[in-house]
Amino acid sequence: MFRRERSIPLRGSAAALCNNLSVLQLPVRNLTHFGVVHGPSAQLLSAAPEGVPLAQRQLQAKEGAGVSPPLITQVHWCVLPFRVLLVLTSHRGIQMYESDGSVMVYWHALDAGDASLVQAVFARGIAASGHFICVGMWSGRVLVFDIPAKGPNIVLSEELAGHQTPVTDIATEPAQGQDCVADVVTADDSGLLCVWRSGPKFKLLTRIPGFGVPCPSVQLWQGTIAAGYGNGQVRLYEASTGTLHVQIDAHARAICALDLAPELLSAAEDTFVHIWKLSRSPEGGYIEVEHCHGECVPDTQVCGARFCDPSGSSFAVTGYDLAEILRFSSM
Amino acid sequence: MLRAAWRALSSIRTQAVTQAPVLGLPGGGCAKLLSVQRDLPSRPGGLILRAARGYATQKPVQPSHEDDPLPSMLLKDYQDIPGIEKVDDVVKKILSLEMANQKEKLKIKKEQLMKKVVENPKDTGSLEARILNDIISTMFNRKFMEELFKPQELYSKKALRTVYDRLAHASIMRLNQASMDKLYDLMTMAFKYQVLLCPRPKDVLLVTFNHLDAIKGFIQDSPTILHQVDETFQQLTETYGGLSAGEFQLIRQTLLIFFQDLHIRVSIFLKDKVQNSSGRFVLPVSGPLPWGTKVPGLIRTFNHKGEEVRKAEFKHGGSYVAAPKEGSFELYGDRVLKLGTNMYSVNRPVETHMSGASENLAAQTQESIAPNPLAKEELNLLARLIGGMEIKKPSGPEPGFRLNLFTTDEEEEQAALTRPEELSYEVINIQATQDQQTNEELARIMGEFEILDQPRRSASKGDDLLAMMDEL
């Protein structure tokens, strides 16, 4: 059972995007950082454990050519071995900051290239894998940046070609053991999932085809891929083989956010947030899913949801047009 | 009866024509009247001969007395005098039709006929119908549509309000600032409601088709405008019909950015409980699901061979039903979706409330910070868009039809004064491109007024001739 905790007020309401909440847990300093996209700006704030807001900062999308201020698509903290960077993707390019958002360390302008006049050009989908940061693009390409231990000397290392439609989300997990296992998953608007192995040269391991429905949110944990789809379904796959393990008719509208740690959190535009317990069955080795908890956020089109601690005992939710971060913790 | 009807109709035309300069009908309206008049022969001699021939070869037509007004009814000129009911019975008798000649009876009969014609819902001459026609034909004007369909970024709130302003003034209808603001707020919140509640992103297109279907219902008797709307439908299908679900989701998300932080309360929504008192829309957790979504509640587990090994259910908290069928994207068809249909199909009040709408002031001031060096670019886009609109300016000194969305004029004034600062729309005035057009337009309308005299003469001529015929 979860109960509603004190909300954290936001300067600007959350935009109707997917994955519109990033949480950076800093247990050592007893702080939690939250990042929410408003539109042409993103808001960062840090809060004490009880939800008391301490500091806040607004970041703007870097201007480029165009009539109106560019819109931000996503804001996400990337935890790398020696540093934490905050990455902002927009309709103009990719901005990388120090974790508190104080200094911009890198700017990558998007090249519209051969985008036709009717195509929207943007970057979307951010994840850290080892000392790499992966960012998705409207073209389906995934840019891989090599991040040094400190300083602004960030280099574009590789451009992955696996998708034909705009990338929606990227999920990673630390590579386990010496075996080269799958540790990066990319998803796109057609519902296609690409599973990669990171390294100096990324390798495409397997593809999981979509079924005509976008996959706005994807997570990867202990070799299991959790993917949320535009028709409200959540599917769990085996990362190494791409086999479908579980299919949940979880929501009545498009899924907008997932989190996995060790419980699965799913949030959708139907105003519901669900928590599922995953376990591996002893016999067949297949994954079992059990519904733990469902929370309705009345009259709110949820756009972001994340666990706030490693055990999954508390989570935070953002909604379109809502100027606060809602918090829930288990009793 | 035919003759009496002809006389009645010709007198209506006469009256309508005489009214034209007073109301300041736009050039388009004058043109319509002209075409009506063209049916009358221009040479008086020819009319006498034809009429005489007609009388010689046909049976004489007797005027019908079925719709005659009662003999006790007062003469037309005396009907509206205040206190006329209280006069002596003898006086009433003298002033009634019983003592009057045929001409007086006809006068009243004509008036009744005219009223009947004006009240007829199919009457395309009435003011309201004409205004609707003007606005719709401007909106669906080819040049304007061409501009709209060009790939472009989302308009700023200021820019859209300017375009909307121009559109609302494309007919002889006039609204002052307060009513215009209210109308715009109403439109914005209604559209926000429709976009927000779309079950799946592609339904935004169905909402648009619902809009078009309703518009076609207003202009059923104007084949040219109907054709324009159908062409727009074609264009919409070509441009958007083939987009993927992901592209529609991006469109919907971008539209929602435009509506972010708008929480103006609309009384019709409050009354129907689709909006609550905070201004937020109610998102129901029951009802039909989007097309393609299954009823939540099922967990299916598979083994590595792909066989289903377990099926479990969970309680999802809502009470949904599967969609009966997919809405049609054809020119004609059952859209299934009710969003975008006429919300005033039952007579409803039109009210919006300003108070409580000033949330997130900081977010809104962000939008109005204008020193954008590229604002000029936006103005150019706007100018092209508005330039593509055929604006009809009233040529008379007085506006023809003033629409007040408040209950009284005083209320309207008050609303204009007390409107919160952050909700005031700065309309961009684009004079440069319009001035030349205005002069040309005025010159054309002035020119058309001269032609107007002739039909009036022939109408009265026809009248006189018929009177002569009657006495034969």
Describe the overall structure.
With 331 residues, chain A is mainly β. Chain A has strands at residues 2-9, 22-26, 31-37, 41-47, 53-60, 72-79, 84-90, 93-98, 104-109, 123-129, 132-137, 141-146, 155-161, 167-172, 184-188, 193-197, 203-208, 217-221, 224-228, 233-238, 244-249, 255-260, 264-268, 272-280, 287-296, 302-307, 314-319, 324-330. With 472 residues, chain B is mostly helical. Chain B has 18 helices and 8 strands. In chain B, the strands form 4 sheets. Chain B has a two-stranded parallel ribbon with strand order 1-8. A two-stranded antiparallel sheet of chain B has the order 2-7. In chain B, strands 3-6 form a two-stranded parallel sheet. At the A-B interface, strand 21 and strand 25 of A face helix 13, strand 4, strand 5, helix 15 and helix 16 of B. Strand 21 of chain A pairs antiparallel with strand 4 of chain B, so a sheet runs across the interface. Chain B: This is Protein OSCP1 isoform X1. Chain B: Pfam families: Oscp1. Chain A: Keywords: Cell membrane, Cytoplasm, Fertilization, Membrane, Repeat, Ubl conjugation, WD repeat. Chain A: It is found in: Cell membrane; Cytoplasm; Vesicle.
Strand content of chain B: 5-15%
Q: What does the main sheet of chain A amount to?
A: 4 strands, antiparallel
CATH topology title of chain A: Methylamine Dehydrogenase, Chain H
Tell the overall outline of chain B: elongated
Number of domains of chain A: 1
Distance between the termini of chain B: 16 Å
Q: Strand order of the main beta sheet of chain A, please? A: 1-28-27-26
Main sheet: strands, sense, barrel of chain B: 2 strands, parallel
Our Rg estimate of chain A from Cα atoms comes to: 18 Å
Mind sketching the topology for me?
The complex is a heterodimer of chains A (331) and B (472).
Chain A: E1 2-9, E2 22-26, E3 31-37, E4 41-47, E5 53-60, E6 72-79, E7 84-90, E8 93-98, E9 104-109, E10 123-129, E11 132-137, E12 141-146, E13 155-161, E14 167-172, E15 184-188, E16 193-197, E17 203-208, E18 217-221, E19 224-228, E20 233-238, E21 244-249, E22 255-260, E23 264-268, E24 272-280, E25 287-296, E26 302-307, E27 314-319, E28 324-330
Antiparallel strand pairs in A: 1-28, 2-3, 3-4, 4-5, 6-7, 7-8, 8-9, 10-11, 11-12, 12-13, 14-15, 15-16, 16-17, 18-19, 19-20, 20-21, 22-23, 23-24, 24-25, 26-27, 27-28
Chain B: H1 2-23, H2 27-37, H3 44-57, H4 76-79, H5 89-94, H6 102-119, H7 127-139, H8 142-149, H9 157-168, E1 173-174, H10 177-196, H11 203-218, H12 223-240, H13 245-258, E2 265-266, H14 267-271, E3 286-288, E4 298-302, E5 308-313, E6 319-321, E7 352-353, H15 361-368, H16 375-387, E8 401-402, H17 409-418, H18 432-470
Parallel strand pairs in B: 1-8, 3-6
Antiparallel strand pairs in B: 2-7, 4-5
Helix pairs in contact in B: 1-6, 1-18, 2-18, 3-18, 8-16, 9-16, 11-12
